[in-house]
Amino acid sequence: MKEFTYLFLALAVIAEVIATSSLKATEEFTKIVPTIVMIVAYLVSFYFMTLVLKFIPLGITYAIWSGVGIVLVTIVGAWKYKEIPDLPSILGMGLIISGVVVIHVFSKNINH
């Protein structure tokens, strides 16, 4: 199971991006299909995160999950909703990505 940890983390991130990207389409939970997609995708995301937590500590798992998710949701928002980030937003996301890389490369809490 350990060999699938990063696959599970990627699936958790993808499901979270689908869920979060669906939030706007729910129109305050008045649209049933996007609402169901959002609920199922969050459940899938959290399920895969529980599998990851067997091998990577909670804080590091969450940092990677949320950091990568922020960047991907921003890309989806720009593409689907035409919400183009400005320069400070892009720089901030660059810092988030840098943080995820530092955690992954240098943390002794991740079993490479």
Automatic annotation (TrEMBL):
The keyword DNA damage does not apply. InterPro entries: EmrE-like, Small_drug/metabolite_transptr, Small_multidrug_res. The chain crosses the membrane at residues 35-53, 60-81, 87-106. One of its GO terms (molecular function) is amino-acid betaine transmembrane transporter activity. It comes from the Bacteria. It is a multi-pass membrane protein. One of its GO terms (cellular component) is plasma membrane. It is found in: Cell membrane. Keywords: Cell membrane, Membrane, Transmembrane, Transmembrane helix, Transport. GO terms for biological process: glycine betaine transport; xenobiotic detoxification by transmembrane export across the plasma membrane. It holds the Pfam family Multi_Drug_Res. Belongs to the drug/metabolite transporter (DMT) superfamily. Small multidrug resistance (SMR) (TC 2.A.7.1) family. This is Small multidrug resistance pump. The lineage of its organism: Bacteria, Pseudomonadati, Pseudomonadota, Gammaproteobacteria, Thiotrichales.
